[in-house]
Amino acid sequence: MSSDTDTDEAHATGAHATNPRATEALTAPAHATPAHATPARATEAHATAARTGEAITTSALHAAATGADTFPGVLREALNRRGLSLERVSERLRVRGITISQATLSSWQRGRSQPERARSLQAVDVLEEILELPAGALRSLLGPRRPRGRTTPPDVEGAALQILGEDSVVEKALGARFRHFNQETSSLMVHDIVRVGETGTLSGISTTNVLRAKRAGADRAIFVLSFDDEAAEPVDIKVTCGRLAEATYLKGLKSLVLEIHFGRELAKLDTTVVSYAVEVSPSETPATHYERWSRTNLHEYLQQVFFHPGALPADCHRYVRDKVGEPPRGRRRIPLSDAHDVHVLTSRCKPGVHGVAWEYGTGTGGAGTQGTGDRPG
Fold first, then answer.
1. Torsion angle of alpha carbons 21, 27, 32, 37, nearest 10°?
2. What is the pTM of this model?
3. Whole-angstrom Cα distance, residue 212 to residue 302?
């Protein structure tokens, strides 16, 4: 599962959790849509009750603005209308003697770069034909030539992309908000508590996050929780520090997006604490690991996993990934305590993906199965 804050996200097998609030409940129907579906439909968003008892209506998260009068917007719209993937477009350009990678096309349609060199401008002319656009429909929308040299992506988006990569679940879930989400705060300390039930599946997650304001006026943060198993769903959210303003569950992405208000505006460098707990419905696959990703340095990160006495693991270890999807490194065994828990305490926690994994022995509820993975965001 994955949870996303202003600087980090947590991912636990079977479920996702993010800043919940006391006595608030989330009703989430069973997953039906494929994991790659976009969160554009209102039917994929569900309402949550606020602590006051007043219903909070949550709509599906806004997808990135279409920008119909801009080069990226017209390009995206034309691609969607024609139903062409970037891979197919790149191949059609190659057949015509023009080599433009999928990554470049993705950058164009997202507005992160624009065609400027002669070869790229030639590709734009051919794109108009491939996408059945009038001549000049795309080229006329190109802005002035940008300064030469490598440009640095926005701090928030760029740092997240380094850990998550392109087109991550977090980016899809946040849509237009991904570019600037939680840019006003950063995490200093995070404490995750993961609970594994008798069947070896994830039963709940609680998190305490200490945030510091980068600028005056910061009053909220957004968190994304992603589930690996479609059967695992958040069934109750309790926030003890903070006020839940939005809870949107996106079935197709198996992700929960929460917006937590601090209850006051922070002064620059002021700190606040957000604490929440999420209960998860039983999944079909036993959990085998939990991860949190961070795009900035954390002063301290404490991760605890509690196991039910009837589903004790045979082996547990910690590890780190430089980015989501890369092989783990620094694998090290960690012992199970008398309280049936393992923990990892990391000071000066560097950006990356920090996880704990476990294996069940023969006869344990989860033996011979592979759980789903959790990633922070």
1. -40
2. 0.61
3. 18
